[in-house]
Amino acid sequence: MISVSLCVIVKNEEEVLAGCLDSVKDIADEMVIVDTGSTDRTKEIAARYTDKIYDFEWVDHFAAARNFAFSKAEMDYILWLDADDIFLEKDREKLLELKASLSKEVDAVSMYYHVGFDDRGEVSFRYRRNRLVKREKGFHWIGAVHEYLEVYGNIIETEIAVTHRKSEKQHSPPSDRNLRIYEKMAENNETMTPRDLFYFANELKDHGQYQRAITYYHHFLSTKQCWIEDEIRTCQYLSDCYRAVGHEEAAMTSLLKSFLIDCPRPEFCCRLGDFFAEKRQYRQGVFWYELALSAKSSDAGFTQLEFSTWYPHLQLCVCYWQLGDREKAKIHNDKAASYHPSHPSVLYNQNVLGT
């Protein structure tokens, strides 16, 4: 059986840290906690689980902190989490099984990251991350913000999921911490990688600076060094920004450009369906929502599950109702209900349709 080091970097995580560590305490053979300046009870809580607690002076660089944590690990493999991540019981069991059976020929293990949930608590947004890596390979983190772990070799994908739990502080308006780091890089004329340009644009968008975001998204695309999933998401985010500044045609064109990169994705088909439905062009809307149901999401990328399940069916119900086809409207509302029976619009439609 392999041995596992858990590595977590923290700052003021007293609200969530115990839950994180409880979910892996019988899986990790050691826990490495790196504190970047907590002023609450974070370190006190960490001390209940481990004596490997280290201080790291924050230097506006997440990769530096994560690499420091990795340097303190001593077991065969390193498992990394954030303090607000947990393994649910079903995933803990899968991870225990993996630990008992994993071949040491494996260099890295990919797991799902569940980060978005609907009003029922069902997963609505997920993607993959390399979570468990062989220590002796010396894999390093890269990037000041939105850092990534550069891995290679024998990588396996599993159905194990890490679940992200939002703390109360994450329900407040977005922090400007990441934006400030990027602004400082720009002011100091530091070289930005294509990934930096992409995430800088995301921060600008999230803070309502749409015109600047558009500029940086185009800078990112012009590098021609884009990960396909980020390039596709750029089409979506550019569309959002153009809509926010009132450029509807550019917004639609940005969505269509995603089809030059890869096969149509459900979320883009639904957005195009929305575009036509809002203009009361329901036949065109039907085309795109139907396409969303037959399109495939990328397991390697970011998956918003509602766009291939209940949402297009719900919108098809509306479109067919407006087109005078009550039978098809009912069929699609019933299908939407099979995925999301408690959705207010589904319930409203059932009342109108008399079902």
TrEMBL record:
Domain Glycosyltransferase 2-like: from-to ranges: 5-125
Gene3D superfamilies linked: Spore Coat Polysaccharide Biosynthesis Protein SpsA, Chain A, Tetratricopeptide repeat domain
Keywords tagged on the record: Glycosyltransferase, Transferase
Record keyword Glycosyltransferase present: yes
Enzyme class, first EC level, given as a word: transferase
Top-level division of the source organism's lineage: Bacteria
Enzyme Commission number(s): 2.4.1.12
MF terms in GO: cellulose synthase (UDP-forming) activity
Keyword Coiled coil: no
Entry-linked Pfam families: Glycos_transf_2 (PF00535)
Official protein name in the record: RBAM007620
Encoding gene, per UniProt annotation: RBAM007620
